[in-house]
Amino acid sequence: MAAEEVHHVALTLRDHLPVLQILIPFCAAPLVVLFGSRTLAWPMAFAASGLAFLCSIYLLMQVIDGGFISYHLGGWAPPLGIEYRVDAANAFVVFLISGIATVVLPFARASVNEEIPQKNHTLFYACFLLCLTGLLGMVITGDAFNVFVFLEISSLSTYVLVSQGSFTDKRALSAAYDYLILGTIGATFFVIGLGFLYMATGTLNMADLAGRIALLEDNRTVQAAFAFIVVGIGLKVAMFPLHLWLPNAYVYAPSAVTAFLAATATKAAVYVLLRFMFSVFQPDFVFGSLAITWIIGPLAVLAMFIASFVAVFQNNFKRMLAYSSIAQIGYMLLGIAILNVNGLTATMVHLFNHGITKAALFMAVGAIILRTGTTFYDRIAGMGRVMPLTGAAVVVGGLSLIGVPGTAGFISKWVLVQAALDNGWWWMALAIMLSSLLAVVYVWRVVEALYLQAPSDDVVHKEAPLSMLVPLWIMAGACIWFGFDTDITLGAARTAAEGLLAGSAGMAEISTAAAQAAH
Amino acid sequence: MMGFDQIPTAFYFFLAALTVPFIAQGILRGLFLLAIPVLCAWNVWQMGFGEFATLPFFGFELELMRVDGLSRVFALIFCLAAFLGNLYAWHVRDTVQQVAALLYAGSAIGACLAGDLITLFFYWEGTAIASVFLIWARRTEGAYNTGVRYLIVQIGSGVVLIAGVALFYRDTGSITFENMTLGSLATWLIFLSFGIKCAFPLLHNWLQDSYPAATVTGTVILSAFTTKLAVYALARGFAGTEILIYIGTIMTLFPIFFAEIENDLRRVLAYSLNNQLGFMVVGVGIGTEMALNGTASHAFAHILYKALLFMSVGAVLFRTGTSKASELGGLYRTMPLTAAFCLVGAASISAFPLFSGFVTKSLVLSEAAEAHYKYVWLALVFASAGVLSHSGIKIPFFAFFAHDSGLRPKEAPRHMLIAMGITAFLCIYIGVFPGTLYAILPYHVEYHPYSMGHVVGQLQLLCFALLAFGVLMRTGIHPPEIRAINLDADWTYRKAAPSVIGLAARGIAVIYTRQMTFWSNRVNGIIGQLYHSHGPEGRTAQDWPTGAMVLSIAALLAATLVVAYLG
Q1: Mean pLDDT score, A257-279
Q2: Are residues B370 and B279 in the same domain?
Q3: Is A315 close to B536, i.e. CB distance below 8 A?
Q4: Is 60 exceeded by the pLDDT of residue A516?
């Protein structure tokens, strides 16, 4: 058995990075509650996410050129023990998630003071850390059931975080409730899918699963598992038409929560979807499956257009961004449906670029809410003149959302169009362009509201505080930076895409051992 | 990662443009605007030859900083022009113009130092977009319309350029900006795009249309960059292309007649600018080392004396509110210094010995003779005489002498005088000590402009031209300065084409309006339906009851299962 081998001998702190990545925020969360100090809550949360971010940079540096780190939890070798497996794909997503958390937290301080009563602050930051833990965990782990556990940790804390919006708008409660029901159903589907897989293979380690599924060929149980997992995770991804929880959750959640979730939660779910499709079920299996051609592809295109149209007609900035997110997720799913290296690269890059873009935009929304109390176009009219730096950040983020050259959004759309052309799908390239045109319209409507109308007198005429502007502009600057410097993003994404398309070859070590054992 | 050994010089201008709005208007900002070009000129000067900044971009290696003999001389004169323009515009309190001037100069310098065609394209468009604000800054409706026409032409040139570059890349697999040979569609497109910016005959109208329309200070800045950038691009990309010799010759000739009869002095200068470009284009066309030297040095001298002329006419416009020859005259009484500087500029452009035009133009002329282009040489000589007539004599004569218009404006403001003084000094200095300019030219120069034959020949030419002007004025044959609009080739697209189209349009109008109503109703209907389904109250944007959401999950799962089993 492969289980008898002990590959992993961890001696230094560096060897423990994969688990520290999770443990730091995970332990900080209860500490925040135990200390119970309102003044200490934020610094602790910030320190924890900052440390996690450092870990993620270090991990990414180690795997960006290919290869992977296999960390055996407690020294128990997989497939019996739980394995954390870091490769380019998930190190990249971990880097995004912890980075966004670290940037959003300084922003959150002023925003949370404004929107959430003081007595809830310690619990809020504890939930924030738990949510971060969950998202990081579901990305970094190499164990299928562990994914479910972390998914639930992140989901449950997300429901709480969303409901914190109820102090400004009571509808946050129903939004959180709807999300809870749907999220739970999604997670249940996912765990049912895992159950089927366990039934068919008797293992839960992803690499091990991959090797065993490959031997089963046409197995109805495995196919059912595939359907359940795709739909279950599809809900967390907000795949059209499973997106219905998303607009309200984003709109009514506190600004900082929206900025964090929009940039990370759906992205982590997209990663899990990719990981299951390509590393657990094999690329061959996926190629053979009609689900991609008949379900994911068409729904992605529908999302690109329907959600964009809804965004065009919206009269609420925050809700418009929520629908735009659904449309942008369409691009990521389209990258999967295109099923070539460029397509997966586009998915991975867009996951990152859209994350930073939406973080910038939702933070700008938070800054505007601080001054106007609302995000309806008629009420935020002229705020671009009152808050020039915030307004400029909206413009930068908007350009990136459209995909204007020189911004991050352009890079991912460019790769996506290339991927479509690689397959000879010129009409798909055309569709991507057309839906980008819709993005021009909905971004323009915001710019028009922010700049081309006179500001009303009953709002606070003041630029956002520095604690908001700095994180906001870090993200807006990143939108531009990654529009020019594509080494990290495209490099990591391409390595990730190649690793994913290599299927179990990307997980060679253990799956071959498992395959031999099965013989 | 960006591998810059050196921050590209253009970036200093862009950074400065970002900083300017945060510096209080007044002396501090004025000094800042003057310091930047000086800093950049020093930066280029001390850098030495080589390639300094590369930037990976979609698998291309962009070379942002290629300093060699040819690009350096252009970068330096652009810095100098930016300095003089900013000094001349010291009194301007308009942030838009100040930022636009910096961005414009930065783009032009960046384009000169660009080592590849993609970088060139970015800066190429940058000059177009930045410069149009100098025209719009006049804030009249006429200037706005002119600006739009200008922008369309300039952006059009950029679009043609990028199309050419894309084809060029497909053909050769390279984007390096090196000497090309005309032949393929790609190179023709690139050539055409350069030609638009260089105001080739029949592509030239944007120049006379826009330069006189800009602000007083804007014209001075506009006159320096765009066309000379195009000359540089031609010299870099198409040196030795024979067709350029003939294009250049025509360019030197045809504006003379328009300049002769034009009433607006700034437009006269715009025509004469066109004519001077012709000399440079001929130099590029000949393409020998000495001819390219001639082009570069002529561009250098030309930027200075043309700026000086625009400055002096601009000062007149600034003080009197008009630049029409028919309304001016006799201003030397109250604006003696401006008049003197104008005369220096006029002498330089007419290539009087001891003035800058003499030592640079003769390089091109003698190369044309050397290469046995007899008729070209003759045409150039004729054009030189024409230059004297319309720029050398007409501008100072009608503005400062001629009949007394009765206007008694004040002398130009002090900063304008200083700017003009420095420029005039440089014009004379280059004329007297050509060695200084020759030393920074791309190739080694063995040329002595002050040979007996050359000086005498030039003086003969000038004297007879003067004589001709005198005779014409005495006998009253010289076209009088009257308020009139001259018809140039742009008449075809600004007047004739519209009227023909107008006729046709009447016939088509009926069908058109019917079609439009039909389609706009259709489109409105579609938008209405879209709003009905996608608007805030529409079905797709509504909040769904929880049960319905759950149902959608079940439906999708069923669909996925069915599809999976079918597969």
Answers
A1: 92
A2: yes
A3: yes
A4: no
Lowest mean pLDDT among A230-244, A350-364, A500-514: A500-514
A178 touches chain B (CB under 8 A): yes
Q: Tokens standing for B102? A: 């910096």
Does A185 touch chain B if contact means CB atoms closer than 8 Å? yes
- Whether the predicted pLDDT of A8 surpasses 60: no
Contact residues on chain B for A319, CB-CB shorter than 8 A: 536
Return the domain boundaries, chain A.
292-484
Q: Look up the ipTM and state it.
A: 0.82
CB-based contact, A247 to chain B, within 8 Å: yes
CA–CA separation, B338 vs B316, rounded Å?
8
Residue B387 scores a pLDDT above 60? yes
For residue A185, give the chain B residue with the closest CA: B550
Mean of pLDDT values over B480-491: 59
A215 Cβ neighbours under 8 A, 6+ residues apart: A515, A518
Q: Which residues of chain A lie closer than 8 angstroms to B553, CB-CB?
A: 182, 185-186, 189, 231, 235, 242
Residue B522 maps to a domain: no
Q: Are residues B352 and B441 in the same domain?
A: yes
Q: What is the pLDDT of residue B311?
A: 93
Which chain B residues are Cβ-neighbours of A310 within 8 angstroms? 534-535, 538, 540-541
- Tell whether B393 is covered by a domain: yes
In angstroms, the separation between the Cα of residue B524 and the nearest Cα of chain A is 14
Q: What's the average model confidence in pLDDT over B253-276?
A: 86
Kindly report the nearest CA distance between residue A313 and chain B, in angstroms. Answer: 5
Nearest C-alpha neighbor of A202 from the set A286, A151, A152, A144: A144
By DSSP bridging, strand B3-4 and strand B66-67 are unpaired
Q: Which of B484, B500, B515 delimits the end of a domain?
A: B484
Interface contacts (A, B; CB < 8 Å): 97
Question: Cα distance from A241 to chain B (closest Cα, Å)?
Answer: 7
Query: Looking at the structure, do residues B461 and B336 belong to the same domain, yes or no?
Result: yes
Contact yes or no for B385/B349 (Cβ under 8 A) = no
- Would you tell me how many other CB atoms lie within 10 Å of the CB of residue B430? 26
Are residue B470 and residue B343 in the same domain, yes or no? yes
Cβ–Cβ under 8 Å, residues A321 and A398: no
Residues B418 and B327 in one domain: yes
Q: What is the DSSP letter of B331?
A: G
Judge whether B558 is closer than 8 Å to chain A, CB to CB.
Answer: no
Note whether B92 and B120 are same-domain residues. yes
The answer to whether residue B178 sits within a structural domain is no
| Mutation target among A293, A309, A413 for the B interface, most CBs of B within 10 A | A309
More confident residue, B277 or B384: B277
Total domains, chain B: 2
Is-contact A256 A108, C-beta < 8 A?
Answer: yes
Tell me, yes or no, whether B529 lies in a domain. Answer: no
Q: Which of A227, A312, A319 sits opposite B561 (nearest CB)?
A: A227
pLDDT band per the 50, 70, 90 thresholds, residue B5: low
Could you give the residue ranges of the DSSP H alpha helices within B350-495? 356-370, 374-387, 395-400, 414-432, 434-439, 452-475, 490-491
Please give the Cα distance from B45 to B49 (Å, whole number).
9
One-letter amino acid at A492 equals A
The CA angle B551-B555-B556, to the nearest 5 degrees, is: 120
A301, A430 Cβ separation under 8 angstroms:
no
Give the pLDDT of residue B504: 73
Give the range of the structural domain holding residue B367, as residue numbers without chain letter: 239-484
Is the domain of B151 the same as that of B250?
no
Contact B565/A228, CB-based, under 8 Å?
A: no
- Mean pLDDT over A175-195 rounds to 93
Would you give the DSSP letter of residue B64?
-
A287 touches chain B (CB under 8 A): no
Contact B534 A309 (CB under 8 A): yes
Judgement on whether residues B314 and B451 belong to the same structural domain of the protein: yes
Which residue among B225, B254, B273 closes a domain? B225
State whether B561 and A234 contact (CB < 8 Å).
no
